[in-house]
Amino acid sequence: MYNNRIGVIFSMKRLLEEGPDVLFDLGISCIQLNGNVTMGFTEENAEKILSMLDGKIAISSFWCGWTPPTMWNFEDGPYVLGLVPDAYRAERLVQLKSGADFAKRLGSPNLVTHVGFLPEQAETVEYRGVLGAVRELAGYCRKIGIDFNFETGQETPVTLMRTIHDIGYENMGVNLDPANLIMYGKGNPVDALDIFGDRIRGVHIKDGDYPTPPFRALGKERVVGEGTVNYPVFLPKLLKNGYKGDLYIEREISGEQQLADIRKTISYINALMETAE
Fold it and tell me: 15, 16, 17, 150: least surrounded by Cβ within 10 Å?
């Protein structure tokens, strides 16, 4: 029987402001905490968060964002997101290292971020610049004893794995968001499992559809099981391939409907794991 933990993605800001009651009510045992440097990567906040969770919910991954601009589309995104744009690279590298230190304080073994639209052309100045920045960040994470994981979506699976192999550090992995591969139009999640192999260190449980005309915006996010990610095939294949890590439910809305959709997804994923034997 598969016993992968099911968790959620949860905002550090929300946790600090509202507390963990909603997490306890959901009955989950792990989270991917989502924060950025403006929320305060301090020892005090780390202690406060750990005290709130009281050992009942593990922070098994820390998703670290960076300061704006952030535009999640195909027009502006390639020029402003992550470590790809040279104009923001040095500042964000400092922020991500700070996030790595914070992840370590929280006891999280994983730091995750969107690196940006990784260049597909390997022999370019742009690719070499990004490669150097990622090598520095992954090396820093290795030094303090945590993994650095790319969240998928803004690059093809082959481009992402080429980047990992070009750097060659064993503490580099993939935070697989199957919906992002579809919503960005970059790949098929079921096939991507063969490309990512044992580098998968975390998985988002999210659904969505491919982009539609005029193809300038991401595809629509959907309730898990109602989008284009083929979960009845994807999840059993993931598990049978040996993935033993956590499954983080992500629903990009707020309020009571978000909680209702998360509860529905917990039941849906548990049922799939039971039949995936």
Answer: 17
| Contacts of 26 by beta carbon, 8 Å cutoff, 6+ apart | 8, 259, 262, 263, 266
Q: Which residues share a beta bridge with 203?
A: 176, 247
Q: Is residue 163 part of a domain?
A: yes
User: Collapsing DSSP states into helix, strand and coil, what is residue 35?
Assistant: strand
Beta strands in the chain (DSSP E): 6-11, 30-35, 58-64, 110-113, 147-151, 172-176, 200-205, 207-208, 221-222, 247-249
* CATH at 62: 3.20.20.150
DSSP 73: B
Looking at every residue in the chain, the average pLDDT score rounds to: 97
Whole-prediction pTM value? 0.97
The band of 232, judged by pLDDT with boundaries at 50, 70 and 90, is very high
The pair of three-digit structure tokens given for residue 263, joined into one six-digit string: 């509860």
pLDDT at 277 over 90: no
In a domain, 255, yes or no: yes
* pLDDT over 90, % of the chain: 98
The domain of 96 spans: 6-275
